[in-house]
Design brief:
Blueprint (H helix, E strand, L loop, with lengths): L1 H15 L16 H24 L4 H8 L3 H17 L1 H11 L1 H20 L4 H15 L1 H4 L1 H8 L6 H28 L3 H21 L5 H16 L15 H18 L1 H29 L5 H6 L2 H12 L1 H15 L9 H19 L9 H6 L1 H21 L4 H46 L2 H14 L7
Helix pairs in contact: 2-4, 2-9, 2-10, 2-11, 3-4, 4-7, 4-21, 5-6, 5-13, 6-7, 6-11, 9-10, 10-16, 10-20, 13-14, 13-21, 14-20, 14-21, 14-22, 16-20, 18-20, 18-21, 18-22, 20-21
């Protein structure tokens, strides 16, 4: 009895010293709008730079092939290995952020990105160029896995839709911005200036991360508060939940490296959504090899070809501009029924995107003839950009809501598969377009996306029943 009383007293004392709450002003959601939006925009710029660097290299391939005396196919590896780095990095960045916090991951990743950009820009051989392209992609990948959590840290569920939409589109605008500037650089300057500019941009981004992105992960903030209280009061009894967690970094790393793959192959719903997303991103990265072939028929030089990506870029911005409408639909459902809509409600955007993508690609395919004005295929690519935005916004939101308990793993699985497709598609683009022609090759891609178009419609109707039978999904 005395032992039980002693234990009860000890537990009561420990509970009294637990640091389990942040005061107003300490919690990220209570910061000023200026501070929160400065952090979000800085994070979004980091994600945009990371993916912009992937596609910018595509327009440097001619100069690289000439200087290092290698084939065009070898230079394409500069894009492929970078994208593979983007896909593998989140498996490491996620566990680190759980232990050390998000801001440390951002700052460290861009310090490495900045450092690795130098040997890419000054590479003495093709081997060094390819190896360090992988490491720069790996370093930049933190923003694709951790940044969504930062947005959720700083904004309540009622506020999060707009900042999350801006973050979602940022890494997909990057691949379109890459050719826009890289085409000019490689037309009028040396190919190395493609990477000099990226290095300068990385330096500015690194400084901005230190200035405008404080720590937002609540468990780490509670730990720091406990450390501060122990130091200022001299009382060592203060503690935070993270300090007494039984989960080690090794366990977090093992889970991060295994659960995404288990989820992919045991959950047909997650696998098919990931496959659909991967096909779309593979096609997006294939355009960096396909558009130069398509617009060579109009005698476009490098900078003019780079500008043709404005169509996809504008399409994505159009998609983003419709976000208030989708937010309004969500609010009206909640007001009418008094509860949040089911996860499948989020797939309405994907249903529209699933139709826009094949429509756009078929339109593009049959306007690649030299007799058709060059503006027509550019305009035809606009719905593709809008469809890509809709497909990814709905898919990411659905995976997070439907697989809430393993949301980070669900997104990591999606990222890994997408990166594999994005890395491989550019490698066979040249052979496919030379064999099938611009019409046949683009129509084949359109047909593949048309086959996948019913997917969001099916899950919109049947997703609830599938989740009831799922091991990972929330019922």
């Amino acid at each position: 009895m005395q032992v039980e009383k002693a234990l009860a007293a000890l537990n009561e004392k420990q509970a009294a010293y637990e640091v389990a709450k942040l005061e107003p002003g300490e919690h990220p959601q209570t910061w000023s709008k200026l501070k929160r939006w400065a952090a979000v925009l800085t994070i979004c710029m980091g994600a945009l730079l990371g993916t912009c660097a992937s596609s910018a290299a595509a327009f440097a391939e001619t100069g690289i092939a000439k200087e290092f005396d290698v084939s065009k196919e070898v230079t394409i590896l500069g894009v492929s290995v970078y994208v593979m780095g983007l896909g593998l990095g989140p498996l490491i960045a996620g566990p680190i952020s759980e232990v050390l916090g998000r801001s440390v991951v951002y700052q460290g990743s861009y310090l490495f990105f900045f450092a690795f950009s130098w040997p890419v820009a000054f590479a003495p051989s093709i081997q060094e160029y390819i190896v360090f392209r992988f490491f720069t992609g790996f370093a930049a990948s933190a923003f694709l896995s951790v940044a969504g959590g930062s947005v959720a840290d700083m904004f309540s569920p009622d506020e999060i839709a707009t900042p999350l939409a801006i973050f979602t589109i940022s890494p997909f605008l990057g691949p379109e911005i890459g050719p826009l500037y890289s085409g000019f650089v490689n037309q009028f300057l040396d190919w190395r200036w493609t990477f000099h500019i990226l290095t300068i941009w990385a330096f500015i981004e690194t400084i901005a991360l230190f200035l405008f992105v404080p720590e937002t992960f609540v468990p780490v903030l509670l730990k720091r508060k406990a450390e501060r209280l122990r130091k200022t009061t001299g009382d060592l009894n203060y503690w935070a939940p993270q300090e007494r967690s039984n989960r080690s970094f090794g366990q977090a790393l093992f889970k991060s490296a295994t659960v995404p793959f288990v989820l992919t192959f045991r959950e047909p719903m997650a696998f098919l959504i990931n496959f659909w997303n991967s096909l779309i991103l593979g096609i997006l990265y294939l355009t960096f090899q396909a558009f130069p072939v398509v617009f060579a028929k109009h005698n476009f030089n490098m900078w003019q070809t780079g500008l043709t990506f404005l169509g996809i870029f504008v399409g994505m911005l159009i998609g983003l501009s419709t976000q208030p409408y989708w937010n309004y639909r969500f609010r009206k459902f909640k007001e009418y029924w008094g509860v949040d809509p089911p996860p499948e409600f989020r797939l309405a955007q994907g249903m529209v995107g699933g139709l826009l993508i094949p429509m756009s690609l078929f339109w593009l395919a049959f306007t690649t003839y030299p007799s058709v004005h060059y503006a027509v295929p550019i305009v035809a690519s606009v719905p593709f950009g809008t469809g890509v935005y809709f497909a990814y916004t709905s898919s990411f939101t659905y995976l997070v809501v439907a697989y809430r308990s393993v949301a980070a793993n669900a997104l990591a699985a999606n990222s890994a598969m997408r990166s594999c497709f994005a890395a491989s598609f550019p490698l066979f683009a040249g052979a496919m377009y030379s064999t099938l022609g611009t019409v046949g090759a683009t129509a084949l891609l359109a047909g593949l996306t048309l086959v996948m178009a019913p997917l969001p419609f099916i899950f919109y109707k049947k997703g609830g029943k599938l989740r009831e039978r799922s091991t990972f999904a929330s019922a």
